[in-house]
Every structure is written in C-alpha cells, then in structure tokens.
C-alpha cells in the first residue's frame, strides 16, 4: 500500500488527503499486544510531498495483514543523510498522553470497566475526540486519586483500567476498544525444532522446570515433613533429557502436621495446575531471514495471523503441544507482508481434565469425606454425602488465567475447556469466588465476594448449614425455614417460631395479621397454661389452679371462673364497676342484683348502697318488693360492726 499524508487536524481518512507518499523507500509498522504502536518511514528529499511532511501531520497506512486503514501522527523527522530522512510516527491513540483526566472512582460491578472508560472521557480536562468501547465484564472497582494522563490510566500505571479489568486493546483510529479477547484461534501450527529455531526459545526449553520438592515445616522449625521419593514430577518430565526441580514450601497449606500422603496430594495438584513441564513460548519468526530457505513455505501461513491471535506450537522433539499468542507484529506496509512476528505466552492458559488428575488426589478426597462422614450424625452425613458425590464425580477442566508477567490472575473450574462453550463455572480471583450455570460471564447466582456479601441461589433448593464437630446443626437457612441450635429453636417458612428457654428483654412483640394474632403459653408438659386471642384472655393450670377467663360476651366484659361464677359490667362511661383496697370497699354501680340464672333478667334480689349502708330489695312472687337496710361500720378497712335495721 502507498501511505497517504493528511493535515494534522484531519479526522476522517477516506480521501487522498494532501497526497500519496509514493516515493517512500520503506514503511514499517510495529505493534505490541497492549504496547507500542508506531510507524517508521524512510523518505527521500526528492520525493513528492517531502516539503509537506512535518511534525503532527498524519500518515495513513494499512498496519497489518487484516487491519483497516489507521492514522499515525508524525512526532519526529531526522536530519537528511545521503538525501534521505527517517520519519517516526505514533498511532493517534498517543494523543491521549497529553490529555488529563481528573480524579473519579467507579464501584465494582460487571459494568464497571465500561463506566471507567466513559469516566476518562467525561472527566477529561481538554476536549476528548475519542470514543471508548469494551466487552469486558470483569467485576472490579476503579479509583483515580490524582489528575493523570488518560493514556496512563488506560494502561500505563498500577491501578489502571488494564490493571484492574484485564483485556486486550485495539486502537482503531479515534476509537479505543478494550476486548476480553482481541484475537481468534487460528488453525495454524508452528513446528518448532523442525522448521524453525530460536535462541530465546532454546533457553526457555532448557530452563523448563519438571518437578518440585515439597516440604512442610512448623513455625518453631522443630518438625518437618518431606517425601521419601523427594520429588513430585510433571507428567511430561520423561520427555526431557535433563531434570530441573524447585523447592515447594507448603507450610501455609496445613494448620497441623500433614501426612506424607497429604503433602504428596497437595504437591501433585499444584504441579498439574501450574503448567510444570510445558516450555514457556517465546519465538520470533523473521520472514526476511527465512525468505531464501526451504523452511519459508512452512511458516508462510503465519502471514495470515493478526495480533493476539492464538496458534498451536508443536515441540516435536519433546512430543509436546501448547498454545501461544501473537504478541508483536512488524509489518511491511509497502509490500503488505510481515517482516516478523513474535509468538509468546503473555496470556497463557492451562486446561486439564479433572479425571486425569493423579489417582492419589481422588483417593485423598474420598478418605477425607469418609472421615467426616464417620464423625457427624445422620442428617449432616446425608448433606456431606451429597456434597461429596458432587465433588468427586466432576468431569471438568481447570483453567489458570494469567497476567502479562505470567503471574496467576484467576482460576476457572469449568465443564468445558473452551471458555466460550463452558456453562457451569466456578470462578476464583482477588474479588472472591462465584458459581455460574450460564457461562464464564455469569450471572453468578452463588457468590462470596470480598465486600462481605454471601449470595446463595440457583435452580435447586439452596441451603446454608453450619454444624459442630459432633454433627449438631448450629445454624441452617433453607427454603423451608431457619434453624439455629436445632435442639432448642427454629422458625419455619410459614412463620412458626419455636424458642425454648427464651429471655426477651426490652423491645416490643407484635402479633397480628389475617388471624389477629394468638399468644399461647405452655408448661413443661406441653399443657396449655394461658391463651390470649381477640376474644378472650385465659389462665389455668390443670390439677393445681382453677381456670380464670376474661372475655367479651354479647358486648359485655365478663370475668369467669371454672365454678360458673362470673362478674360482668353493663354500664358505660366507666360509671359502673368495683374498687377494692385496704381502707375502702366501693361499689360504684347503681344496682347489684342476684339472679337465679346468669342469663336471666328475672332478678329475685337486688342491692343499692350508700357510703355507710346497704339497702336490700327482695322481690316476692306477686312481683312486690320489700326493702331493708344493713349498716356497716369500718375501721381501717375492717368491718367492726353490723346493724340490721
């Protein structure tokens, strides 16, 4: 392609601009994964448009095999040597170096990455002509405490967006794209050792660690556990003529002194999951150097790759295959082909079938489950048995996702080794752990996050159970209710609350709802001692006390005893009733009648009274009445005299 020159303030590149730089001697573009993106051009002083070249002008080229046209801003032009100059230009994204974003923060969520990118634009001090896009849904927060260069906050410092959320940048003129994964997997195999060699890769192979020497030592340095065979080796160790081992301190993995088998199991899992025995890939393929060799046709398919694409690297002499990413490209713009590509393992994954784990690992899980099963009671054993069945019947994969420097970023336990195809996923990283049944991107309906939140859900009936070493349930929350210290207390989903030996101090107990509320009290033999409803208040203790009941009967308040005696009141406004104390007996009612039947209005005897006398009225068979008086004398509330008049 012939490069095109544009004015420094150009924003679209669909024309010939100032003109095409057809006299360019060479023009190369180098791009690294999440790194540099620069153009270098050699141009003669006699070339057309030489006088138009200047700092901040824009050169538009096709920067790689599958890319669209991209704009590069000139930042340096050398002095002419032999009538030629070297022009250095950077992609437009470098304009973000000189624009500052003010402090802001974004709380952790699946949309936080996009919010952070948009925040850089909205908090920019100068006009920001760039747009930002991402499909990254990593749950993390973003905090910027000081004014900073937007470019630095994108990728250049600790705590940057790239640091917090991960991903792979694509710079598309005025659009900044942060992909979960920028490239694709290409069906291309590089046969290292047969068609190509590389001194750096030879060094990586020579330094491949094939085993670990695990050990445990207590804090006092008085006890130590090692293995009689000393070394736990990778499954590929026999493929290497030399053996390299490294110590593996597992002291923090065990609170108590482990057995040799426990130490061996832990070390085996570590070796299988950490990629021991797989050589780190770092290969530079120089097409220029191979141009006149027989091997050139073997590597020619690599001309079709793009930055961040994944290919297979086959180490035929070792009999090992692994995958690696295209992490750097150097593209010849004029001849539209790569000068070289760098293949590395800046982002590596390791997929391993759980069924392929060392048999001792599975046996250790089974032994541990049997030990726990023997210690707990039947109810808890059922739960442990069910959990053990789930965990020991797994047929999935473990994927370690790593940072650019090779350090581990997170672990994914999946039912498929392809993250795009996996459905059931356990994800563990610095923000917590979570379970998803809908793929790596979630939602994670069961999670424990580092902000202190525990979420339990899913399509099955979830439950949370805590039990002591004796198998007794301390706490259980499930769909059917909540139980704590199961022998004494519980609360069902219907609202039935059972608390034994309860001591409720302060506060208010409210009973109500559709059934108006009922309060019942029982003795130690589960016999009803008291009941309070919207109809009555009743107290009794069978075999010891009589029953006392207060209720509303036909609009009248009634106090009843179990010998059929009762007291009721028919007055209003508080004018009728009784008052008793040590000094006075007061009947505030106007009339007191004795009847033959509690429900009869055929009064046979009645009483009216004054402060010192009671008047008796007797009803005779002919409905006539006769009256008499009884005078009572009281001293200090004691009746000391009766005068029957």
SSE layout and pairings?
Layout: E1 4-6, E2 19-20, E3 26-32, E4 37-44, E5 58-61, E6 70-77, E7 84-91, E8 100-101, E9 104-109, H1 112-122, E10 131-134, E11 140-144, E12 148-149, H2 150-156, H3 161-165, E13 168-172, E14 175-179, E15 185-192, H4 199-206, E16 211-217, E17 224-225, E18 232-233, E19 245-249, H5 260-274, E20 282-286, H6 287-290, H7 296-299, E21 310-315, E22 320-332, E23 337-344, E24 351-353, H8 359-375, H9 378-392, E25 397-402, E26 408-414, E27 425-429, E28 432-436, E29 446-449, E30 454-455, E31 463-467, E32 473-478, E33 481-484, E34 489-492, E35 497-499, E36 519-522, E37 528-532, E38 536-541, E39 545-553, E40 556-561, E41 566-569, E42 578-580, E43 585-587, E44 592-595, E45 603-609, E46 613-619, E47 625-635, E48 638-644
Parallel strand pairs: 10-14, 15-21, 16-19
Antiparallel strand pairs: 1-2, 1-5, 3-4, 3-22, 4-7, 5-6, 6-7, 8-12, 9-11, 13-14, 16-17, 16-18, 20-23, 21-22, 22-23, 24-25, 25-26, 26-27, 27-28, 28-29, 29-30, 31-32, 32-33, 33-34, 34-35, 36-37, 37-38, 38-39, 39-40, 40-41, 42-43, 44-45, 45-46, 46-47, 47-48
Helix pairs in contact: 8-9
Can you put this structure into words, describing what you see?
- By secondary structure, the chain is mostly beta strands.
- It contains nine helices and 48 strands.
- Helix 8 packs antiparallel against helix 9.
- The longest helix is centred in the middle third of the chain and has 17 residues, at 359-375.
- The relative contact order is 0.06.
């Amino acid at each position: 392609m012939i490069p095109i020159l544009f004015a420094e303030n150009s924003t679209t590149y669909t024309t010939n601009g100032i003109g095409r730089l057809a006299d360019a001697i060479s023009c190369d573009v180098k791009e690294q994964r999440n790194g540099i993106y620069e153009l270098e051009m050699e141009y003669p002083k006699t070339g057309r448009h030489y006088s138009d070249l200047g700092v901040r002008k824009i050169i538009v080229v096709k920067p790689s095999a599958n890319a669209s046209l991209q704009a590069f801003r000139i930042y340096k032009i050398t002095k002419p040597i032999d009538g030629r100059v070297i022009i250095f230009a950077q992609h437009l994204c470098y304009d973000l170096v000189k624009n500052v974003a003010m402090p802001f923060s974004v709380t952790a969520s699946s949309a936080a990455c996009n919010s952070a990118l948009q925040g850089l634009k909205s908090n920019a001090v100068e006009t920001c002509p760039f747009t930002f896009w991402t499909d990254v849904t990593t749950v993390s927060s973003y905090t910027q405490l000081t004014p900073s260069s937007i470019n630095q906050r994108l990728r250049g410092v600790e705590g940057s967006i790239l640091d917090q959320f991960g991903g792979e940048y694509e710079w598309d003129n005025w659009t900044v794209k942060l992909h979960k994964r920028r490239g694709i997997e290409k069906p291309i195999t590089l046969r290292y050792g047969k068609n190509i060699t590389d001194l750096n890769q030879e060094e990586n192979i020579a330094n491949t660690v094939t085993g670990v020497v695990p050990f445990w030592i207590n804090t006092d340095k008085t006890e130590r556990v090692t293995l009689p065979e000393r070394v736990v080796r990778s499954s590929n160790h026999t493929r290497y003529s030399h053996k390299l081992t490294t110590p593996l301190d597992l002291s923090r993995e065990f609170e108590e002194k482990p057995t040799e088998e426990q130490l061996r199991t832990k070390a085996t899992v570590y070796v299988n999951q950490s990629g021991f025995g797989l050589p780190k890939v770092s290969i530079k393929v120089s097409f220029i150097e191979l141009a006149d060799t027989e091997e050139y046709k073997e590597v020619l398919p690599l001309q079709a790759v793009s930055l961040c694409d994944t290919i297979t690297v086959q180490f035929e002499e070792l009999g090992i295959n692994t995958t690696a990413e295209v992490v750097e490209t150097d593209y010849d713009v004029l001849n539209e082909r790569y000068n070289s590509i760098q293949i590395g393992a800046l982002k590596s994954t390791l997929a391993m079938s759980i069924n392929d784990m060392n048999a001792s690992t599975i046996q250790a899980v089974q032994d541990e489950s049997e030990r726990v099963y023997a210690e707990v009671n039947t109810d808890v054993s059922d739960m442990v048995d069910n959990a053990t069945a789930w965990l020991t019947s797994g047929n999935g994969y473990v994927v370690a996702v790593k940072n650019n420097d090779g350090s581990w970023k997170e672990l994914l336990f999946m039912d498929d080794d392809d993250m795009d195809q996996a459905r059931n996923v356990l994800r563990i990283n610095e923000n917590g752990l979570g379970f998803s049944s809908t793929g790596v991107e979630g939602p994670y309906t069961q999670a424990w996050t580092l902000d202190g939140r525990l979420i339990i859900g899913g399509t099955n009936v979830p439950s949370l159970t805590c039990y002591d070493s004796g198998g007794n349930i301390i706490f259980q929350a499930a769909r059917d209710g909540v139980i704590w210290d199961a022998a004494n207390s519980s609360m069902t989903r219907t609202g039935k609350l059972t608390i034994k030996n309860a001591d409720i101090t302060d506060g208010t107990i409210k009973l109500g709802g559709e059934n108006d509320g009922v309060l019942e009290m029982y003795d130690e033999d589960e016999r009803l001692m008291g009941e309070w409803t919207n109809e009555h208040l009743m107290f009794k203790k069978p075999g010891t006390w009589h029953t006392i009941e207060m209720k509303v009967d036909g609009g009248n308040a009634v106090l009843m005893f179990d010998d059929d005696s009762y007291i009721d009141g028919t007055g209003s406004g508080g004018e009728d009733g009784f008052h008793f104390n040590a000094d006075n007996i007061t009947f505030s009612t106007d009339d007191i009648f004795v009847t033959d039947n509690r429900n009869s209005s055929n009064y046979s005897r009645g009483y009216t009274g004054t402060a010192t006398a009671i008047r008796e009225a007797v009803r005779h068979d002919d409905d006539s009445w006769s009256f008499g008086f009884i005078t009572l004398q009281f001293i200090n509330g004691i009746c000391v005299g009766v005068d029957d008049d």
